[in-house]
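Hi U.,

Before I forget, here's the chain from the pilot set. I'm dumping it here mostly so it's searchable later in email.
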Amino acid sequence: QVQLVESGGGSVQAGESLRLSCAASGVTFSTSAINWFRQAPRKEREFVAGISWLGGSPYYADPVKGRFTISRDNAKNTVYLQMNSLKPEDTAVYYCNLNNYWGQGTLVTVSS
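Structure:
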């Protein structure tokens, strides 16, 4: 059974940082691309960042380029999202996605 478990969310002030983690189990993690999405209140879920199974060529949505960094540790079956210079508009539930699987999400709240 595939499980994706996010952690690391919380409440911060604008300009601060958070690092999200997504631990995967029940899947061949090392050969799968993995993504982060987010869903803000009253908005549709949107893509944030993704990384290939080799770990190279990460790709980002325009609103987070230069502020967020995605990385992975295949030995730990974990992907990370380092979020710097957070803005109130980054407030959302952040989800980990691998193929057709989704985690339960972790809430990030950024106050001004």
